[in-house]
Amino acid sequence: MYFTHLECASGCGAGPFDPRERHFLCPSCGLPLLARYDLAAARAWSRDSLVGREPNMWRYREMLPLLPGDEPVTLGEGFTPLFHARRLGATLGLDRLYIKDESLNPTNSFKARGQSAAITRAKALGATTIALPTAGNAGNAAAAYSAAAGLECQVFIPKDAKRPFIDECRLYGATVTLVDGLITDAGKMAADKGKPLGWYDVSTLKEPYRVEGKKTMGYELAEQFAWKLPDWIIYPTGGGTGLVGMWKAFAEMEAIGWVASGHRPRMVSVQAAGCAPIVRAFDQGTEKAAPWENAHTRADGLRVPRAIGDFLILQAVRDSGGAAVAVTDEQMVLDMLEIGRHEGVSAAPEGGAALSAIRRLAADGRIKRDETVVLFNTGGALKYLDVLAQ
Ligand SMILES: *Cc1c(COP(=O)(O)O)cnc(C)c1O
């Protein structure tokens, strides 16, 4: 295992921080911390060692946040199917469109990866209660992994959240507090209530380990494409942990010699027209994203008016030569149906949004017919079926 320390992602120079202690945001600049590994030593780790390992994200455990003696809290998350979506691709004039189907994770979304890693660390650090604000999927995953770890879970969720998200938290034994307000209000309430009680807060990018879980999507893409990364990655972006995580994975894999340098995918950040702070900042060329006023979209995972890792998302999109695209709710719901009827895949509105962005980039000639494109279907449709009836 090569996990060594934590470091501030902003380059403020604080740290290194000892992962045997609890750390959340950088004590010096207030921005996210990231996990670091002994990459020089990890060059001795051969990708051939993956053969025969269990098909879940912990197959990359040498490069995940485990210390000697730690065992992962796992429900079999990750190693989701990546398949060639020929019929859907044909409707767009694309020969090599692939779907990475994250809806097949425990609790039906890729939030499982992040919470598996975060709650593994929380348990190792002696936490007894997990707490978080959520729009839905993150809370479901946190509740499930807390149950699997034997920990208590406190979920703070806006009271207008979709019913299935609230009920599923309770299914896994979590205590649910309905908040009269937005996810930002729920976050404040979770922090105020939990701080004096020592609750372990697993809010997006406020602890360093959800990114580590989500970066395994980058390792998997490389392995599933036989160590040649695709040309485009289309990622519906809220807090951006997956996009930031995959970009980190590509850097790590280059450093340890698993993939060639200089062939990174173009990263596309997809947001909803009613909440597109990253797209606006990308267009304006700013380093950070101003908070979005009156955020609204039916894609709950995309209703994030302010992402604390905004600068990391923008850096990855720009360094990759990618794009940032906003799509309307109407279009993303139509595209959920397109994914369903052409491929038999259950897509959340966020997955639909990724297709809408591909449609736009292909029509503009940015994505070429023979390029390899990966659509991230980040969650399944079942908790959102009400949007089809509207
Ligand atoms: C949370 C979520 C997203 C956004 O993920 P981030 O990594 O926070 O950007 C996208 N799709 C679904 C289904 C989600 O639950």
Low-confidence stretches: none
Radius of gyration: 19 Å
CATH class of the largest domain: Alpha Beta
Count helical runs. 13
Q: How would you portray this structure in words?
A:
It contains 13 helices and twelve strands. It has 390 residues and is of the alpha/beta class. The chain folds into three domains: 3-63; 82-109 and 209-388, Rossmann fold, CATH 3.40.50.1100; 111-201, Rossmann fold (3-Layer(aba) Sandwich), CATH 3.40.50. Strands 3-4-12-9-10-11 form a six-stranded mixed beta sheet, with helices on both faces. It has a four-stranded parallel beta sheet with strand order 7-6-5-8, with helices on both faces. A two-stranded antiparallel sheet has the order 1-2. Pyridoxal-5'-phosphate binds next to helix 8.
